[in-house]
Design goal:
With 155 residues, this protein is mainly α. It has five helices and three strands, in the order βααββααα.
Length: 155
């Protein structure tokens, strides 16, 4: 393990250093920044420099992504944290409580979907009375039989 130079504590990190320390590709760091999940400052040479709290924020992002939390939800949660401060245990407790509720709801939806899967014949008619997967309330049956949304998904 490399020794930490006391003069480096508090020194902003270059994008390559953030990538090396976080295990995340430079392109992912740029993506997170473009999405407003993390922030950088520009030095006099117009190069990105990141405060060290970005390492913990990236760790939170990676854990949340691994759980299947959407980037929009991650962004909203991180926006509540004070800028320039490493997320704390209390911050994580708040975030994880919110995300636990999201996961519980998704698990519930997936379990319902699993139970309905046996009824699906995969024909694509989209208005079959029993089709709770593609047309949950069978609202399209009022327009008659047959495919109603075919080809609309790509637009």
């Amino acid at each position: 393990m490399a020794k930490i130079n006391p003069q480096d504590i508090g020194k902003p990190l270059a994008v390559g250093e953030v990538a090396a320390r976080s295990g995340v590709a430079v392109s992912a760091i740029h993506f997170y920044e473009a999405r407003g999940l993390i922030h950088s400052q520009r030095n006099t040479g117009n190069q990105r420099r990141y405060a060290r709290d970005v390492l913990r924020r990236i760790a939170v992002i990676k854990v949340a992504q691994r759980l299947g939390i959407s980037l929009a939800s991650i962004q909203a949660a991180l926006a509540e944290l004070p800028e320039g401060r490493t997320p704390t245990v209390a911050d994580w407790a708040r975030l994880s409580k919110r995300w636990k509720a999201e996961l519980d709801e998704r698990i519930h939806q997936l379990m319902e979907l699993r139970e309905q899967l046996g009824d699906c014949i995969g024909c694509g008619c989209l208005s079959i009375k029993a089709c709770k997967l593609r047309n949950p309330l069978d609202t399209l049956s009022e327009e008659g039989a047959g495919a109603r949304l075919l080809g609309m998904e790509s637009s």
